[in-house]
Task: inverse folding
């Protein structure tokens, strides 16, 4: 008996949407199964930053590759996605952090990522509402922002235009050995099953090395021009490196609507999606330390989401021990940025062809191998 589909993509967040889009483009018969709505979950709690990051060579390769794919796709994106190539300013509070600015500048140059070092005066001109004085910043003009839920919807719609089916409001009881069983009694057979449910992936695959990481976001009313670039303190990197403790960092993003999106926070071990007012207060206090005038602006909403974190801060992309089951999860705070590259690597793996970048650093088997050699 032939399978009903070539691929079942589990999850309609930004990563699942990108995988469905990529596999459907390859001519595969695809169905996307989602428990809730398109672009909900961690996608709705993402800042929408398309950013090159350099926590490791593998992270740099994946983010740079994916940013190039977003750049190629950007002319086709509808205005509702609010794609804006506003650039990122990595802000140095003092001379010690300027050393990090210069290190990043040299590293990005070696990877052919254009950057510019701004001194204190140039930074004040670029962003007049930042506190003064600050030591300087690294400008990465190729970074962009977008509105993640609409980006996921666009990719799902594009997949459907290529013939993909979409099943919403369906809870999956099991997904293995080429078969998906739904709670309504429906059974779907498929050559490949792609788990792209972020932090929820452990509900079906409990042994995955993934932990939930809770984050808070706040958005303001419309204040066009108050901020011109994505603003991130260099201390954000220290915050992102912590894998055991709660942390906050200054991260503000301008939106095409004129609103300001405020992050960022990280919490391990939090299971409740309710606002944690102590974390929120710390996050906003940190924001006001860099942007004092933001205290006079009106915020209109705060919310949370759970991101999927792995021990080495790299996603899980590729096959598992079950030859029908592939993973596209564990992206934590870089799911929006790396969604397109994840989908391309996944399609390359399924179709057994060479990828533009090596897939080895992201293969799920890396954790099994570490255990075997321990």
Result:
């Amino acid at each position: 008996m032939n399978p009903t589909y070539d691929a079942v993509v589990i999850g309609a967040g930004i990563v699942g949407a990108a995988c469905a889009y990529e596999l459907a483009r390859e001519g595969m018969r695809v169905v996307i199964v989602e428990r809730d709505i398109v672009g909900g979950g961690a996608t709705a709690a993402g800042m929408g930053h398309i950013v090159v990051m350099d926590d490791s060579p593998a992270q740099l390769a994946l983010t740079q590759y994916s940013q190039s794919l977003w750049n190629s796709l950007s002319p086709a994106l509808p205005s509702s996605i609010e794609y804006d190539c506003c650039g990122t300013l990595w802000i140095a509070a003092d001379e010690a952090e300027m050393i990090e600015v210069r290190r990043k500048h040299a590293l990005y140059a070696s990877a052919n990522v254009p950057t510019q070092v701004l001194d204190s005066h140039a930074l004040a001109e670029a962003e007049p509402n930042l506190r003064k004085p600050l030591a300087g910043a690294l400008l990465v003009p190729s970074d962009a922002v977008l509105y993640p839920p609409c980006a996921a919807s666009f990719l799902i719609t594009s997949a459907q235009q290529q013939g993909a089916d979409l099943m919403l409001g369906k809870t999956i009881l099991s997904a293995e050995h080429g078969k998906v069983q739904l709670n309504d009694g429906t059974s779907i057979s498929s050559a490949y099953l792609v788990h792209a449910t972020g932090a929820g992936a452990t509900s079906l695959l409990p042994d995955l090395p993934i932990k939930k990481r809770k984050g808070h976001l706040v958005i303001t009313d419309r204040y066009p021009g108050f901020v011109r670039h994505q603003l991130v303190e260099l201390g954000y990197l220290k915050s992102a490196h912590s894998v055991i403790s709660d942390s906050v960092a200054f991260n503000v993003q301008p939106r095409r609507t004129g609103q300001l999106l405020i992050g960022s926070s990280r919490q391990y071990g939090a299971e409740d999606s309710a606002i944690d007012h102590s974390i929120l207060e710390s996050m906003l206090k940190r924001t006001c330390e860099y942007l004092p005038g933001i205290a006079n602006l009106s915020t209109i909403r705060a919310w949370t989401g759970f991101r999927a974190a792995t021990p080495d801060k790299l996603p899980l992309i590729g096959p598992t021990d079950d030859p029908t089951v592939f993973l596209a999860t564990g992206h934590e705070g870089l799911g929006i940025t790396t969604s397109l590259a994840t989908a391309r690597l996944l399609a390359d793996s399924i179709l057994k062809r060479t990828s533009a970048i090596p897939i080895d650093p992201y293969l799920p088997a890396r954790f099994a191998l570490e255990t075997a050699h321990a």
Notes: The longest helix spans residues 57-73. The chain has two domains: 5-47+148-209+312-369, 88-141+211-309.
